[in-house]
Amino acid sequence: MTIQKWSDKIIVAELSDDPQFTEEIKSLMDMLEPKCSSVAINLSAVSHLNSSNISALLRIRKRVLAGKCRLLLCSVSERVHSVLTITGLDKIFEFTDDVATALASIQIANQT
Fold it and tell me: Of the N and C termini of the chain, which has fewer Cβ atoms inside 10 Å?
């Protein structure tokens, strides 16, 4: 797990499966407290999501969007993406193939 400030306005988080997932999300939420940042979450090490994980992702999304920032989910496995699709959440989350693409997308959007 790594959560790092990539810049003043961008946080990159690499999450893993539970039980670490819950603690990592909590750490990410704490980083968002002072001000909103756009967030790229690398899910390449996450092999499954449970309802608690989904709820945590939705809380992060709500906080990020409230600050007019962006949340991108990166490197989502087919299994995790299918869970998000079945729940209809694939329509509310933004996805990118990898962190580099997410960072580029956020930077381009910040320039406009």
Answer: C
Number of domains composing the chain: 1
* pLDDT digits 0-9 by tens, 29-53: 888 866 778 999 999 999 999 999 9
Q: Which residues constitute the domain of residue 31? A: 2-111
For residue 41, CA distances in Å to 28, 54, 84, 110, 112 come to: 10, 13, 15, 18, 23
How far apart are alpha carbons 83 and 36 in whole angstroms? 27
What is the reported pTM? Answer: 0.92
One-letter identity of residue 69: C
